Please model this.
Amino acid sequence: MKIYLVTGNKHKVGEISALAGNDWTIVPITSVINNKIEIEEKGDSFLQNALIKVESFKHLKIPLIADDSGLEIDALGGFPGIKSARFMDGYPYTERMEELLTRLESEENRKARFKCAAVYYHPTGVVLAAEGVVEGTIAFEIRGARGFGYDPIFVPEGYNMTFGELGEEVKSTISHRATAFKKLFSLLRLFFSSTNTTGHHRS
Model:
């Protein structure tokens, strides 16, 4: 069963495909539209932004999933939050992380969290949603080269290594995105079993 992921991020495609297991085949929406994805994420929450993403392509009448996620840093008032992907847009994440670390230089409070909202859209109009959170702290330096985004500065609760050091094997069990999509895929199984809706897209 194919589900089309609204993203241009190849790392995200791989991560979500691993979470989907053998039940679904996650296909990037770019394989259908053959264009760069340009969506104005003007929502006030991660959930609203995820909904905006699927609604932008619902005219295709195919099963869609999307997510929006970000890093909230307590000492910065929750920044960058829903602006995580757009903060210093155009700059490499190394420079974005260095800027955040600079802003935190005099801060003892390093508490932070990653949040993710994941949404599924079925061509019949049914929408399912789930959210995930992982608490942690901000490291004092960039550590590790695994993962993507802000992973190398985030230390999840209960660990002394960043997501950038831990790698996918651990991240796929505890991350905000893993939690959100595991919940979403559980909802999908219930949805399909209760309605006998296959969700298959025939091309």
Remarks:
- The chain has one domain: 2-195.
- Strands lie at 2-5, 25-28, 64-73, 111-121, 127-138, 154-156.
- Residues 149 and 181 are 18 Å apart (CA to CA).
- The first strand starts at residue 2 and ends at 5.
